[in-house]
Structures are given as C-alpha cells and as structure tokens.
Automatic annotation (TrEMBL):
This is Sialate O-acetylesterase. InterPro entries: SASA, SGNH_hydro_sf, SIAE. PANTHER family: SIALATE O-ACETYLESTERASE. Pfam families: SASA (PF03629). It comes from Zobellia amurskyensis. It comes from the Bacteria. SUPFAM superfamilies: SGNH hydrolase.
Amino acid sequence: MKPKFFIVAFLLVLAYQPAWAKVELPNIFSDNMVIQRNEKVSLWGWANTGEEVTVLTSWDNKEYKIKTSIEAKWSIEVDTPEAGGPYEISFKGNENEIVLKNVMIGEVWLASGQSNMEWSATTNKGIDNAEEEIKNANYPNIRFFTIDRRTSEYPQENIPGAWEVCTPETMKSFSAVAYFFARRLQGELNVPIGLIDNAWGGSPAEVWTPKSVFDENDDLRVSAEKVEETPWSPVSPSQLYNGMVHAITPFKIAGTIWYQGESNRGRFDVYGKLFSEMVDSWREAWGADFPFYYVQIAPFNYKESEQGVLIRDVQRRVLKTIPNSGMVVVSDIATIDDIHPTNKQDVGLRLANLALKETYNSYDGEVYGPLFKEVHPQGKKIEVVFDHSAGLMSKGKKITHFEVAGADGTYHPAKAIIKNDKVILSSKEVKEPLNVRFAWDNIAEPNLFNAAGLPASAFISE
C-alpha cells in the first residue's frame, strides 16, 4: 500500500502547484518593443503566488519590487523618459530572469478595423508601387506587432504575437495603411514608432465592441443579434474584442487609427451610436481619452441602394459626437469596382497628418476636406456653407454631384457655382430649394476640393 499512497500524494502535490511557477510576461512585452514615452506605463505578468518580482529599467537604472497576488499576477507602473533607446528591461523572480532587449521608447499606435486596414503590400493585388515600397522599407525605429486572429467568448489576458523591427521582409506582410502612417510620423517627429495591428477583414463593428455596451443598450444588442453569418469574419458580438483587444488594454498607447464600416452598411441606422459606444468603451478600458482617427469608407459599387453613402454620412456625423476624433475622406482614391483601393499611401498620409496636427501640434497644413456646416435658402437658390473650405474649388469644368429638394422632398440635380468659398445651388425643377445632398450615391466620386487638395465629404442637409 505504501507505494500507492506515495503516488497519490505526489499527484495531489502536483495538482495544487501554482499555474505560474516562473516569472512570465504577456506577449505584448518582447524584444524590439516600443513603449510610450513620457508616461507612467504598466508592466505586468504572472509568477508564483506571493513571489517577489524585481524589475529593472535600464533608461534610469531604477529597481522596482512587487509581490505576486493570490491570483498569481503582478503589475507595476514605471516612468518612461523622452523618446530614445535601445534599452533593456529585466524581470527577475525566484526561479528565472527575463531580459527584454532592443526596447525603444516613443509613440505607440493601435491600428484596427477590417480588410482595408489589414491589407498589406502583398495581399492579393497589393498596393501601388509595391515593389519599390517594400525595397525601401528599412526603418529600424519603426516596430510592428501583429495580433494573430483570435476569437473568444470571454475576455482573454494574453494574445499571440511578438514585436518585429521594420524591414522589407516584415513590412510586406504588415498593414500598409499603418506602415505609411508610421513612416510619416517617424519622419516628422524623429522618434520611434510602435504599431499594434489587430485588424480582421470583413469584421463588423459589433465584434470589436465589449459585452458591457450591449448589456447597457437594448437597441444595439437586438441589432447585433441579427447580424448574418459571413465567410470572412465571425459576427458574434464582442468575440474579437475578447480575443484581440482586451489583453492589451493595460498597454499604454498614444491613440488609435481605424478603417472599418463596409460590413455595417446594412445597419447604418444604428452604426453611429454603436461606433460612438465602441470608442467610449475602448477609452474606458484603457483608462485614457486617446485620439481616435478613422477613415470614411470609399465609394464602391455595392448592390444595395444607398447603403454605402449612408454609412459615409453617419461617419461624417459622428465626428460631432466623438470627442478627440478625426476623419479622413478618400473618395478621390476610390476604385468603385474594387472595395480595396490600392492607394494606401495617401490614406496613411492623411491619417498621419491628422495626428501630427491634432495630437502633436507639429503640422500647420489643412488636414480635413470640406465638411458640410449649414444651408441658407435664398429664394430660387440655396447657399451651402462648409468648414475647412479655404480655396474651395472643383477639379473639372463643372461641379458635380449636388442635388436640391424643395418642400416635396424630391431631389433633382443642381447647378453649382463657387462664391467666397461657398457653393450656390439652383435647379429649374425646384423653385424654392430647402435642402441639399452631395455625392449621394454609393459610387459617387465628386470633384469638390479645398486648396489643400482634400475632397469634400458626402452629406445630406436634412
């Protein structure tokens, strides 16, 4: 009986051993990482219950000690200096030591959304000038972290991935929009840039939104439950937030860039509220009101009547409801027969210029195209006033895609002229125009721009 007793006892001891016998780190901490400058940033991980973990940061040679909780977790905050590097961070426990090398301190941005954000230089038909762009992608102070696709019913504490230095080899499979965004930032700010990419092609906004939003908003919950299955992405609410976002929310970021909306066009009526709630929930999870810059979806030949332009108009409108946000319009780079425009350079550039102006105060140029402000009926004519309209002009002999409606609500094509950076409209079919719509078609590629060469957003004045 003795041997059997000892075997059972031994197995019981093994069963009650803590899950974390050694110091371990989440995958978001690895060699080549970038952490946010001039901040209190969290470092965290797992170890044996009650174990003391010693953390040493080489930029200030400070030593921090923290004891692991009963849940076998530990977390500390450290101060980061101005941008620089490379540095090392060591994590030492009773049984092991982990040393992270080639760590840079700079600006960290999250890039998320669906396929146009996920799109790389070598995805399908790639991007404009792909061969040259790949060849020149040697930027040792730009770092990439790609979160592999994961879904979960519950919020996860870790995600797969590792930081990589930007080289032609790593750039060619990374988000092209995010890369061009970082290249512009790095060139202007001259600091290391870290990019975290967690986009998933075809994904609706519902899957990126935490469960708490649906618990608190019955209309959004009912709408989310009706999302139809697709071959491109999971559609169950919160699945990608749980699997690809929650685990990195303690990781300090400078802001988020977002390119999504195509998969929500059938639910445009709730998209504005959903998108606003999603942004709020992310900021709450991170504990910071970071900037959130997004791309208005491009014109495309959807089969559904008006759904594409309706989403674009919602994206324009939520600019007023989401503080510290910005939107870039890309109607001029659209390929209406291909939902994936290959000109990712200008998308990344426009997002970067937004960040440089609004977040870093280091760019003096205009970063918005003309945005509808108000209309002034004037008898047989109606005046349209825009924000960001300095140097308003048309790229063509006639200004296209304006329509007006009178009291009956029926829209008719309008003649447009520019006067004092405003647009004056009239139509023989409408005696007294009261409302205006512009570029109101899924495939509309209008020709109204400002002096900065940025296109006007679609809108309806009702």
